[in-house]
Design goal:
By secondary structure, the chain is mainly alpha-helical. Helices cover about 60% and strands about 5% of the residues. Among the domains are: about 15-80, Arc Repressor Mutant, subunit A; about 290-425, Serine Threonine Protein Phosphatase 5, Tetratricopeptide repeat (Alpha Horseshoe). About 50% of the residues are buried.
Length: about 425
């Protein structure tokens, strides 16, 4: 069987040759377990070998499985992949980059396949899929307790559960730490393990300096993948180094232009830099790649809101709520949209509905605070941001630069919180500084 691991879904094996020819975009997409639009983009931008009938029906396409498998294997091996800008590492012409999030082997075994299923469901980001991801990673570890990359994937999934308010933040942090520690003990040199460590240190432990040193050390080795640059860019946003965040996220995009996660990261970087045109362009691409991406719709709505397009913002937030599982976070964003539109009664009505579940440890206090801030209900805004801090809400990492909290940042209570979170003066990345 051909091993075709990549940083996303894998095509079906060559044993499924009973229908060698695929006769529609739908069949080709099903072969890769992707959306039709995604494989159409692959044909345009990456040379996916799709053929056309010129004398039958206009637009009719077909492809052969073995050609698709050969193309996929070439893509996995990095042949023809975009190179990382050598400006990141002066004196080095290029970096060795990896497409696969799990290393390939001649006989990967059942633990590997369980981990790949975990990776697939982790990337979906919905409540049901993230819980499935936990199950598959745990199954992989039952099959092979020494499989470090399964621990890494498990850690990333706990972080995602926390970010999406599907697991109490402190519980997720503790679970992620145990998984990262186990992964590091087994294989401290795995790029997936190192990336999981960055994710944990930056988003859960709030160890900014340690996370940046780790990013720098990985980049200096030259053994990186798009996930490394994506996480590095996210860290730079938290530290207010927006130009660096944009550059790093664009490097990630060159390595994996068809990743919804990477396109979302580029959008985030532009958003926090105040470049809303580019932010919208990249988040629209992320949504095009994964229409059920609820956080993509959330970011699109927030970008429209910053441009004063409140009705468009509400539509985006409502679409995000539709594709999520009754997310209280998306409800808070809808309330935010109505507050911005001037409909304080509707905003307050939604807030009242959300507050009925205020005892829930997954309560989205950070985003509820933003609504109160926009309604100029300062005491309640401060109360909720303080609660988000006590809960260790991952989104608190954005507090210094989130435009929704501009009116609160001069308050002593908020300054005390940010001082406790960011005690180390911000310094420029030594690795990137050399390239300027």
């Amino acid at each position: 069987m051909m091993d075709t691991s990549l940083n996303d879904k894998t095509p079906r094996s060559m044993s499924e040759r009973s229908t060698e020819r695929l006769d529609s975009w739908k069949e080709i997409a099903a072969f890769f377990r992707r959306e039709v639009r995604t494989v159409q983009l692959w044909e345009k931008s990456e040379g996916l070998p799709v053929k056309r009938h010129h004398h039958i029906k206009l637009g009719s396409v077909y492809a052969y499985r073995h050609e698709l498998e050969s193309w996929w294997a070439s893509r996995c091996s990095g042949h023809g992949a975009p190179q990382v800008d050598s400006a990141l590492t002066p004196g080095k012409p290029k970096l060795s980059t990896f497409s696969a999030e799990y290393p390939r082997s001649e006989d990967p075994g059942p633990a590997y396949h369980a981990s790949m299923m975990g990776l697939y469901f982790w990337k979906q980001r919905t409540r049901v899929d993230l819980l499935k991801a936990v199950g598959y990673y745990q199954e992989a570890l039952l099959l092979d307790p020494t499989y470090a990359d399964a621990y890494a994937g498990l850690a990333d999934t706990y972080v995602s559960l926390s970010y999406n308010h599907l697991m109490p933040a402190r519980q997720a942090m503790e679970s992620a730490k145990r998984a990262v520690d186990s992964a590091l003990a087994l294989d401290p040199h795995s790029i997936n393990v190192r990336n999981a460590e960055i994710n944990f240190r930056a988003n859960c432990a709030w160890e900014w300096a340690a996370a940046e040193r780790l990013c720098q050390s990985i980049v200096e080795t030259g053994l990186v993948n798009s996930r490394t640059f994506q996480l590095y860019a996210s860290l730079m946003i938290n530290l207010g180094r927006h130009d660096e965040a944009i550059r790093l996220s664009l490097h990630a995009h060159r390595l994996d232009p068809l990743s919804d996660i990477v396109n979302s990261q580029v959008s985030f970087s532009y958003f926090y830099a105040g470049d809303y045109d580019n932010s919208i362009a990249f988040i629209n691409r992320a949504i095009e790649l994964r229409p059920q991406f609820s956080m993509g719709h959330a970011l699109l709505g927030r970008t429209h809101a910053e441009r004063g397009n409140w009705e468009q913002a509400i539509r985006s937030f409502e679409r995000g709520l539709e594709v999520s599982t009754d997310s209280a976070l998306l409800k808070a964003l809808i309330a935010y949209g109505h507050a911005g539109l001037g409909d304080s009664d509707r905003a307050s009505e939604i807030l009242q509905e959300i507050e009925a579940d205020a005892g829930n440890e997954c309560f989205p206090a950070y985003d509820v605070s933003a609504v109160y801030a926009l309604l100029k209900r300062q005491d309640q805004a401060v109360e909720h941001i303080s609660r988000a801090y006590e809960m260790h809400d991952i989104k608190m990492t954005y507090i210094q630069y989130d435009p929704r909290f501009k009116s609160l940042r001069s308050l002593p209570q908020i300054q005390q919180i940010t001082a406790s979170m960011f005690p180390v003066p911000r310094t420029r990345s030594a690795t990137l500084q050399q390239s300027h």
